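pinned: reference chain
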Amino acid sequence: MNTRVKICCMHSVEEARLAVSMGAAAVGMVGAMPSGPGPIDDDLIRRIAAAVPPPVATFLLTCETGADEIVAHHRRTLTNTIQLVDAPEMGAVASVRAELPAIKIVRVVHVRDEGSVDEALCAAEEADALLLDSGNPDLSVKQLGGTGRVHDWRLSRRIVDLSPQPVFLAGGLKPENVRAAIEQVGPFGVDLCTGVRTGNRLDPRKLEAFFREVDLANK
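pinned: its structure tokens
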């Protein structure tokens, strides 16, 4: 099975079209966040999502944790997938599913230690997919993604092997390390933001190099 690629932190319709033209299976748009690169306003997220052709997935990255707030954020943006970058409140995912039955839900797990494996498996029970990242939601200013840091891929591999749901790998990926990441972790997909940007702009040469390395890993 070929590894899917999700390019995150879209800043414009043009960037999304560039990512799709290179082979992205999904694009991510970042809503308001306590920290990190890439947040854009909800109106722009909605315009980008509307411009992306099927079957490419459009991810709304939201830091909301309550069901009502998550649903409201989605209704302002109309993506086909919601990426929960922070742990949702008890029962929130079930409530979101009841309100938005056609929308896929991806739970982010920030891989920090052995406890992240159990956290991921619990999250997988209510999600359509997992995304393993390298943030730290316990800081006073939460880090919920976009850190550019690589975490312990050995833990990620354990999660991939045990999870009943597909797993995306994120955290510090770039053309120079994505082949090793795919070979060592075996994820369903890979996800990145800063690794294919230059001066905060999506870089066609870095994108081309990234997809070339993914193709080599899939052979």
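why pinned: The chain has one domain: 4-218. The mean pLDDT is 94.
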